[in-house]
């Protein structure tokens, strides 16, 4: 079969508009792939007994895109059959239950795309310069991922 | 010899410094810890997060410590508090 029209692509976007699961999953669909795996990170309404009103995200955008490109490169090294990868992260205010991040990966068979999606979100949380502020009723808190290798473990 | 670098502040460090970016004149060769100390001199409120931040110099992470940086005019130096993407 002629594969030249379906060259593997990485789709990386940081944007403040609402994320669409349909849009992101359609980016990675391929006639050569039997699997599309997805991760959607959504906003919870509570943290340690406090009510969360909404989340706010900011990013070092140029470096975040570069770090996500590195993750895509690593994915392709570890799972060479992966076809397309999409990583969309929302910035600014994210209301409860809406998506902050959507990751979609396609591959001919399901094992690779499922593993690659998990690797993408785990590595994103450890290495991509994006910050989340949780807004409560009376206060707010800058969150720290446990995956962050330089953060203090005591809070 | 000194040069002008672009310092970027994010998240809690932007709140403590009171700004998102500025140009600073710093020695061309400096350890990452010395660079941090120069920045804290300009913005003393940043001292409280010293144990939690790293730098990104030309978009590569650098821990605060003895690592010698060789800076060029116009280099981007970002203060990176603990990240929380995803």
The major β-sheet of chain B equals: 5 strands, mixed
Strand content of chain A: 35-45%
Structural class of chain B: alpha+beta
Helix content of chain A: 25-40%
Give me a quick take on this structure:
The complex is a heterodimer of chains A (155) and B (86). Chain A has 155 residues and is an alpha+beta fold.
Describe the protein's architecture and organization.
Chain A: Keywords: Cytoplasm, Molybdenum cofactor biosynthesis, Transferase. The complex is a heterodimer of chains A (155) and B (86). Chain A has 155 residues and is an alpha+beta fold. Chain A has three helices and nine strands, in the order E-H-E-E-E-H-E-E-E-H-E-E. Chain B is of the alpha+beta class. In chain B, a hairpin with a 2-residue loop joins strand 4 and strand 5. The interface between A and B is medium-sized, with 31 and 19 residues.
Secondary-structure map with pairings?
The complex is a heterodimer of chains A (155) and B (86).
Chain A: E1 10-15, H1 21-28, E2 35-42, E3 46-47, E4 50-59, H2 61-78, E5 85-90, E6 92-95, E7 99-107, H3 110-127, E8 130-136, E9 140-142
Parallel strand pairs in A: 1-5
Antiparallel strand pairs in A: 2-7, 3-4, 4-6, 4-8, 5-7, 8-9
Chain B: E1 2-9, H1 11-17, E2 21-27, E3 29-31, H2 32-42, E4 54-57, E5 60-62, E6 68-70, E7 76-80
Parallel strand pairs in B: 1-7
Antiparallel strand pairs in B: 1-2, 3-6, 4-5, 4-7
Subcellular location (chain A): Cytoplasm, Cytosol
Organism (chain A): Lepidothrix coronata (blue-crowned manakin)
InterPro entries (chain A): MoaE_sf (IPR036563), MOCS2B_euk (IPR028888), Mopterin_biosynth_MoaE (IPR003448)
């Amino acid at each position: 079969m002629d594969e030249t029209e379906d060259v593997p692509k990485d789709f990386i976007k940081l944007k403040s508009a609402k994320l669409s699961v349909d849009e992101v999953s359609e980016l990675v669909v391929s006639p050569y792939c039997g699997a599309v795996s997805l991760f959607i990170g959504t906003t919870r309404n509570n943290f340690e007994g406090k009510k969360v009103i909404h989340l706010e995200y900011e990013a070092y955008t140029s470096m975040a895109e570069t770090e996500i490109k590195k993750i895509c490169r690593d994915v392709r090294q570890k799972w060479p059959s992966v076809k397309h990868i999409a990583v969309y992260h929302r910035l600014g205010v994210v209301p409860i239950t809406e998506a902050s991040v959507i990751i979609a990966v396609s591959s001919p068979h399901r094992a690779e795309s499922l593993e690659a999606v998990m690797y993408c979100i785990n590595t994103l949380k450890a290495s991509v310069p994006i910050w989340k502020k949780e807004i409560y009723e009376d206060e707010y808190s800058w969150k720290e991922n446990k995956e962050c290798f330089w953060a203090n473990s005591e809070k | 010899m000194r040069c002008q670098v672009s310092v970027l502040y994010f998240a809690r460090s932007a709140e403590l410094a009171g700004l998102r970016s500025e140009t600073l004149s710093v020695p061309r060769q400096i350890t990452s810890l010395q660079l941090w100390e120069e920045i804290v001199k300009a913005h003393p409120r940043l001292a409280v997060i010293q144990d939690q931040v790293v730098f990104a110099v030309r978009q590569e992470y650098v821990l605060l410590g003895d690592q010698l940086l060789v800076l060029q005019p116009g280099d981007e130096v970002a203060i990176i508090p603990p990240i929380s993407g995803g």
